[in-house]
Design the sequence.
C-alpha cells in the first residue's frame, strides 16, 4: 500500500469551487429568469407603454421581477467581490458568470426601455426607406412599416446619435429584413441582431477594461471585471435593455489601453455619440503624458474630416442640425418621471436640478481620486453627458 494520499474526489460542499460555482449559477438564474419571463409577458400579453413609466405602469408580477433582479444581482455582485478579496474567484470564473448574465440578458426583451426599438426603426428608415434619420421623422417617412408601432414616441423624434451608430443600425436592420418570414418577423430579426451586437460590444468593453491592468495583477483584473460585468446596472442597461452607450464606452476603453490610440478611440466614440467629446480633455492629457500628441492630432484631424463628410451628406440641408435642439423635448427617463410624479416641480426644474446634483457628485469623485486618470475620465464623462453637450436629456 502506497504511503501517498490519493487526491480528494470532487465535492459539492458550499466551500468548494464547484459549490461556489453552483451558488453563483443559482443567483444568476434567480436574477435573470423572472426578468426573462416578465419581459415577454410585458410586450406580448400585457403591453403597457414603458415610455410613460411611473409606479403602477408595470403590473405586480413584472415589478416584482425587476425588484428580484435588483436584489439578486446586488447579492451576486457582493459575493463576487468578497470571493475576489478572499482569493477564491479568478478571472476565468468571473468571465463564466458574466457570460451567463449576458446570455440570459440577450434573450430578454427590453422591459424598462424603448430605445432598442427606435434603433431598429431608424435603421429601417435609413436602409429601407431612404430617409435621413436626423431630419425625417419615422412617423411621416415610413407609414405602415411594421417597426413603427414598436417605436411609439420615438417615431416623432429625429436621431440623436452619430453616423457610426446610424450606419450600423441601418446595416443590421437591412440584414434582419432578409429573414424569411413576414414583415413583423423581419423587424424582430433586426431587433435581435442589434441586441446581439450590443452584448458583443459589452463583452469587448469588459475585455478592454481588463487590458488596462497588467496580466500579472490577476486580483485587480478580476475585481474590475466583476465590478463591470456583474454590475446589475450594466447588465440591465446593456444586456437586457440593449442600450447603445456601450459603443461609446468600448472605443474609449480601447483607446486608453495603449499609447497613440486614445485619439482614435475618441473619434470612434464621438462618431457613435457626440457626448463622448466630454472625455476629450482627459484623453488629451493622457496622451501628452505618454508623448503621443502627434498621433492624437492626426486622429483628431481625421475625425474632423469624417464629421465634415457627415455634415455634407446629412446635416447641411434645411433643418439638418435641428436634432440637437430637439433633444430638450425628450423626457422618457424613468427616474425623471418618478420625480415629476411625486414632487411639485416642473420638468425643467427636475432636469436642471438632477444634472446639477450629478455634476457636483462627479466633481467630488474626480477631486477625491485625482491621482488616478480613469475615475477622472468617468466622472468628467458622466457629468457632461447629463448636463449636455450642448443639451441632453438626463
Sequence:
Amino acid at each position: 500500500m502506497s504511503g501517498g494520499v490519493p487526491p480528494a474526489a470532487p465535492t459539492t460542499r458550499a466551500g468548494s469551487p464547484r459549490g461556489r460555482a453552483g451558488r453563483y449559477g443559482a443567483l444568476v438564474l434567480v436574477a435573470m429568469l423572472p426578468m426573462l419571463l416578465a419581459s415577454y409577458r410585458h410586450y406580448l400579453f400585457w403591453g403597457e407603454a414603458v415610455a410613460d413609466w411611473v409606479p403602477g405602469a408595470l403590473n405586480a408580477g413584472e415589478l416584482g421581477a425587476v425588484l428580484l433582479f435588483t436584489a439578486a444581482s446586488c447579492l451576486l455582485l457582493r459575493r463576487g467581490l468578497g470571493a475576489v478579496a478572499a482569493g477564491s474567484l479568478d478571472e476565468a470564473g468571473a468571465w463564466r458568470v458574466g457570460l451567463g448574465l449576458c446570455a440570459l440578458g440577450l434573450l430578454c426583451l427590453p422591459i424598462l426601455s424603448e430605445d432598442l426599438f427606435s434603433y431598429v426603426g431608424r435603421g429601417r428608415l435609413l436602409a429601407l426607406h431612404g430617409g435621413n434619420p436626423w431630419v425625417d421623422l419615422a412617423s411621416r417617412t415610413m407609414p405602415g412599416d411594421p417597426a413603427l408601432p414598436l417605436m411609439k414616441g420615438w417615431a416623432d423624434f429625429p436621431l440623436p446619435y452619430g453616423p457610426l451608430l446610424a450606419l450600423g443600425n441601418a446595416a443590421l436592420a437591412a440584414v434582419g429584413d432578409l429573414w424569411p418570414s413576414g414583415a413583423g418577423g423581419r423587424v424582430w430579426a433586426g431587433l435581435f441582431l442589434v441586441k446581439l451586437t450590443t452584448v458583443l460590444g459589452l463583452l469587448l468593453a469588459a475585455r478592454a477594461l481588463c487590458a488596462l491592468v497588467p496580466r500579472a495583477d490577476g486580483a485587480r483584473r478580476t475585481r474590475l471585471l466583476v465590478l463591470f460585468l456583474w454590475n446589475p446596472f450594466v447588465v440591465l442597461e446593456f444586456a437586457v435593455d440593449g442600450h447603445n452607450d456601450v459603443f461609446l464606452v468600448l472605443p474609449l476603453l480601447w483607446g486608453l489601453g495603449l499609447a497613440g490610440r486614445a485619439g482614435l478611440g475618441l473619434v470612434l466614440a464621438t462618431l457613435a455619440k457626440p457626448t463622448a467629446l466630454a472625455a476629450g480633455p482627459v484623453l488629451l492629457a493622457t496622451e501628452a503624458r505618454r508623448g503621443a500628441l502627434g498621433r492624437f492630432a492626426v486622429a483628431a484631424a481625421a475625425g474632423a474630416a469624417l464629421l465634415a463628410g457627415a455634415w455634407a451628406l446629412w446635416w447641411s440641408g434645411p433643418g439638418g442640425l435641428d436634432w440637437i435642439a430637439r433633444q430638450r423635448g425628450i423626457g422618457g427617463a424613468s427616474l425623471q418621471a418618478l420625480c415629476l410624479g411625486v414632487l411639485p416641480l416642473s420638468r425643467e426644474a427636475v432636469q436642471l436640478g438632477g444634472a446639477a446634483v450629478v455634476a457636483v457628485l462627479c466633481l467630488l469623485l474626480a477631486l477625491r481620486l485625482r491621482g488616478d486618470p480613469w475615475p477622472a475620465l468617468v466622472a468628467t464623462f458622466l457629468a457632461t453627458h447629463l448636463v449636455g453637450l450642448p443639451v441632453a436629456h438626463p
